[in-house]
Amino acid sequence: MVSDKGPGTGDSAWDTRKIPSLLAGKAVEFIHRSAGENPFLLVYWSPTVHLPHMPPGTLDGKPIRETTPSRHLDMIRVLDWEVSRIVAALRETGEWGNTLFIFTSDNGGLTDGEAAKVGHYPGGGFRGSKNLPWEGGHRVPLIVTWPGVVKPGTRSDALVNGTDLVATIAELVGTRLTTQQAMDSWSFLPLLRGDDHFKPRQELLLQAGSRNELMFRQGPWKLIMQSDHKLTRFDPIALFNLDENPAEDEARNLIHDPAHAERVRAMRARYLAIRNSGERTAPLPHQRPGAVHP
C-alpha cells in the first residue's frame, strides 16, 4: 500500500494499517525505558488522521474499521487509542503524576462530508479547514494535563501559537535560550502555573497553504492578505474582529469599511515591519519579570 504523496513504487512491504501500533509501541517502550529519577521528553507526532486513511480492522480486540461514518473518523478512534496507550504507560510507571502532557495539532482539520452528515465538523464550527486562511484552518485544540499544577477544567482565551511550545518547554526544564534561538516563541509556562500576572502575546503572524494567503493577528483583530508564491504583493482582502465575529462571516468582513481603513493600513505595515526586521518578537523566558530560575 503506497501513499498518494508522490511518485515512486514505495516499499512493497509497507502497510499503513500497522503504523499506529508500531509507533505507539515504540512510545510505550521509550516511557518504560526512561522512567525513573531523570526527566525525559517524548514528542509523539501521530500520522493517523493524515491521508491515506487506512484504519486497522481491530485494536486490542476491538473493532475499528467501518465503525464510524467515514475512514477519517475511524482514524480518529485510532488516535484516541494511541493516546490511551501513552497515558497508560505513564500511569504504569508512576510518572503520570509528575508529567506535563500536551495534546495539540499543527493545523486545522480536513473536510469530511460523511462525518458532517452526522454532525461532526473537524473545524469545530469555525469557517474553513486545513490549507485555508480562516480559523477552521488554524485554530486547534491545546489540551494540557499537569497533575497538581493545572487545575482540571481550567480554560483560557490567551493567544498561543504552536511555536510557543519551544520556549515553554525550555523554561520548564531550565534551558536558557539565546537571543537568536526560538525568536518568535512566547513561553506560556506562567499561564499553566496559574500566574495572574502572565501577559500573553498580542500579535501573531500566520500563513495559509497553496493559495498564498497571509494572516496577521493583533488581539481580536485578524487581517488576511493575498500574496503570491514569490511574496511580491501583500494585498488586504479581509478584516475580522474575532471577538464579535468568530465565524468570520463574510457579510461582516470590514475590509472596505472606511471606519477601519487606518487599522488595515497600520496592521499591514506592522506585519511587514515584523516580517522584514529579523528581530526577536518574544521575550526571553529567563528575563521576564517574576521568572523562576531553576
Number of domains: 2
The CATH architecture name of the largest domain reads: 3-Layer(aba) Sandwich
* CATH homologous superfamily (4th level) name of the largest domain: Alkaline Phosphatase, subunit A
User: Helix tally?
Assistant: 6
Reported for the largest beta sheet, the result is: 4 strands, antiparallel
Helix content: 10-25%
Q: N-to-C SSE series?
A: HEEHEHEHHEEEEH
Taking the alpha carbons of the first and last residues, their distance comes to 49 Å
- Gyration radius (Cα, Å) is 21 Å
Poorly predicted sequence stretches spanning 5 or more consecutive residues: none
Work out the strand percent.
Answer: 5-15%
- Per the principal axes of the C-alpha atoms, what is the gross shape? globular
Instruction: Give the C-level CATH assignment of the largest domain.
Output: Alpha Beta
Structural class: alpha+beta
CATH names the topology of the largest domain as Alkaline Phosphatase, subunit A
Total number of beta strands: 8
- Strand neighbour order, sheet with most strands: 5-6-7-8
- Which whole number gives the mean pLDDT? 92
